[in-house]
Please model this.
Amino acid sequence: MKDVAFGQYFPSNSVIHKMNPAIKLLLAIAFIVAVFLVRAFHFLGFGVCFAFLISVTIIAKIPFSKMLKSIKAILFFIIFSAVIQIFFNKKGTPLWENGFITDVALLNAGYIIVRITLVVLGASLLTFTTSPVELADGIEVLLTPLKLVKFPVHEFALIMSIALRFIPTLLDETDRIIKAQKARGADFESGNVFKRIKALVPVLIPLLISSFRRADELADAMDARCYAGSKNRTRYKKLEVAFKDVFAIIVMAGLITAVVFLNKFNLIPYLAAVV
Amino acid sequence: MQVVVKNLNYTYSKNSKSVAVKALKGINLTIEEGEFFGIIGETGSGKSTFIQHLNGLIKTTKEDCECLKIGEFDLTEKKCNYKKLRSKVGMVFQYPEYQLFAETVEADVMFGLKNCKPEMTEEEKSSAVKKALELVGLNYYEIKDKSPFELSGGQKRRVAIAGVLVLEPEVLILDEPAAGLDPKGKRELLKLLKEIHGKTVKTTVIVSHDMNLIMEECDKVALFHKGNVAKVDAPENIFKDKELVSLCGLKFPLTASLYHALKEKGVSLKTNLKVENFIKAVTEYYKGEQR
Model:
């Protein structure tokens, strides 16, 4: 249980790691938008996106093996979408006489694979370089405008960071309870799905109870320190916009412009006409 | 059942070299049937990892261990029957009350029986539960239909221990059984463990940071240090070895601290370190002085 890696923060002291998390979050969204802006069969845009990803990975000192692992996690999903495309897309001409696979289907599958891969890699790059706590801070900043409609932004961010903080604790606890029940002969490994789900009851109930206990204790501890929510609270870590953040925004703007520009150059005009 | 451990090694996160931690480095230990055995050591010395091996919660292989035998069970074998083993070797974890889950005390105590001895009839199970609850000093009829969550802390712990004892283990392993109890609850729990020891439970293994408890109750003690067994001996012999105990980062039981303090002043007592004997030796010594 301890080997479950949550979040995938990869600590290092690169420029990317030190960027303002709110801006990083926005830029990650912008990158995903850029990927989706690339029109079908205009693969030059993807090339630019890939080049961008690879250079950021190098600057952030993230090992490529780590990046590959994050794709591995959704490999099934990628293959599934591609297979669906290959077998059910009937546009274009069949690859062989009366064949059921068309050229458009094949290219479309490739298009989808590249798209999903790019999106996942972009998102992983964000989580690799931003710790969960920083991410929660970033989300808080981005949600600040919602304060106008009386949305409790600070509380929302607090809930998020507490949840993140307690995940490892709960994993430890789960491990302990599983062992205690195993020592009483509980069997989590055999039987069909329903049996296994039922076998989890003796783990889930103690876990739930101890979560309530912890929540109570935490609330008391916060009360004892006179915690009173968002009003007039200062921050330990001030989020500032530095030169590197501005520079990153300019680069991203450049990337999006490039993608839009490259959309004009169709490498396979015949197919574009078919679609 | 005799517990024999030869050259047991264990490494956490073995597969990723950067975070791998060697927790056990060649443990050799024999626990004879009938012993009230203590295990002491600093936090992180490998005690918990070690006891988890004893009922197969951490599985070992022939590669990591020369020999790990409990009675007829060979835990280095892949086809070891863990269910059977776990009914013979009971394990009570730290704060066992956190494992309670069922709607009634009876159902919770019965959990182990349902898993390990499904062939028993309902009546047999109920009478086994009754026996276990009475063994831990609780009134079966009063408590069986209560929810385990409405009991007091001490009662919860007893119910949890009953949930292990119900399988009638021959070896009982307890990790800090008295942690978090008040002095009275602590005394009662120990009295109880002493009573159970010698009935169905033949061998008791206690892991504890409470040196007074270890000194008073145990026949033999293993001192763990950084994944090794530094010494196995009677408790007084261990605590009389001042350098070793300090080196291993442990405290002394009260009698041992007095013993060492007196020794520094030139008073060398010939006694073991159990409170009763120690007081006797001290009073005799001072009577001799006054004469």
Notes: Chain A touches chain B through 20 residues (CB under 8 Å). Residues 153-183 of chain A form the longest helix (31 residues).
